[in-house]
C-alpha cells in the first residue's frame, strides 16, 4: 500500500510544473509516514544524474520525491554554465546541485565539492563514479577563516543544516562531528582553479567568514555569479556581513523570489528596498567581461 502511494506521490511531484512548492509538499508529515526509515537509495534526479541519498533525511526526502532540491538553482546553473566551465559547491550535502553542474560543464570542465561530513563526502564520491563524472573533485573539509579542527553541529535527519555554529530553535537531537577546517582563500588558491563561473555558497551561517577569508582570492579570481544563502532577517539586508563582503567585491544582488511561479523570477535589491521572505540570493559580477550573465538570465 505504502509503496504504491509513494510511487504516485513521486510521479505527481516530479511532474509538478512550478518552480516552488514541491519541497514543502515532500516534507509534509503525511509524506514522512510513507517514507522508509534509514534507507540509502540511488535516485535518478529530475534531469538525469544519479545521486545516493538517505530518503528519511530532510534533504534526501525532497530529492526522493521531487528529483531536485531547488529547481530555481538548477535553472540558474543550466543557464550560466557552459562546457569547460568551473563550478564550486561549498556546502554540497548530497551533491545534487554539483551533479547537475557536472552535466552542464561536461568533461572539459570541472566541479569541486566541499563537504565536511565524512559520510556525505563518501556518498558524493560513489555517486560521481556511478555517473562517470571524472571531472568531479571532492574535498572532505569545511572552508572557514582558519586551519584547524572544529565542531560541526548536525541536526539528526537534517544533514543540510549542519553548521559550525550552534543553531537556535532546533527541536531535534543534534550530533556533533569533529571536522577539519581550512582557510578558504589559501585552500582555493592551492587548487589553481580556472576562473570560477558559478559559486554556490550554502554553509548555514558561516558564509561571511568564508568570504572574508577568501576576499583577496576573489578579487583576483572573481566568480561570474554567486548563489548564496543569507539569514538574519532582523538586520537590514545591506548591513549583513555576508552582503557587505559580496557588494565590496563588485556584485549586484538579486533575491530569488519565493512565490510559486511557472518560471524563475528575480528581485533586484537596492538600498532601503523591501526584502521578501526567504533566504536565497544571487550575486552577479558587474565586470564588463561578465555582461553575458545578465543576458542569459533575462535581466537586461
Compact summary:
The protein is about 35% helix and about 25% strand. It has helices at about 1-15, 20-25, 30-35, 60-65, 70-80, 95-105, 120-130, 185-190, 205-215, 215-220, 240-250, 290-295; strands spanning about 40-45, 50-55, 85-90, 110-115, 135-140, 140-145, 150-155, 175-185, 195-200, 225-230, 250-255, 265-270, 280-285. The relative contact order is 0.12.
Question: How does the SSE layout of this entry go?
Answer:
Layout: H1 2-14, H2 22-26, H3 29-34, E1 40-44, E2 50-54, H4 58-66, H5 71-80, E3 86-90, H6 96-105, E4 110-114, H7 118-131, E5 136-139, E6 142-144, E7 148-155, E8 174-183, H8 184-191, E9 196-201, H9 207-213, H10 215-220, E10 225-229, H11 241-248, E11 251-256, E12 266-268, E13 280-285, H12 292-296
Parallel strand pairs: 3-4, 3-9, 4-5, 6-8, 9-10
Antiparallel strand pairs: 1-2, 7-8, 10-13, 11-12, 11-13
Give structural notes.
The protein has helices spanning 2-14, 22-26, 29-34, 58-66, 71-80, 96-105, 118-131, 184-191, 207-213, 215-220, 241-248, 292-296; strands at residues 40-44, 50-54, 86-90, 110-114, 136-139, 142-144, 148-155, 174-183, 196-201, 225-229, 251-256, 266-268, 280-285. With 300 residues, the chain is of the alpha/beta class. The chain has an eight-stranded mixed beta sheet, sandwiched between helices. Strands 6-8-7 form a three-stranded mixed beta sheet. A two-stranded antiparallel ribbon has the order 1-2. Helix 9 runs parallel beside helix 11. The longest helix has 14 residues, at 118-131. The radius of gyration is 18 Å and the shape is globular.
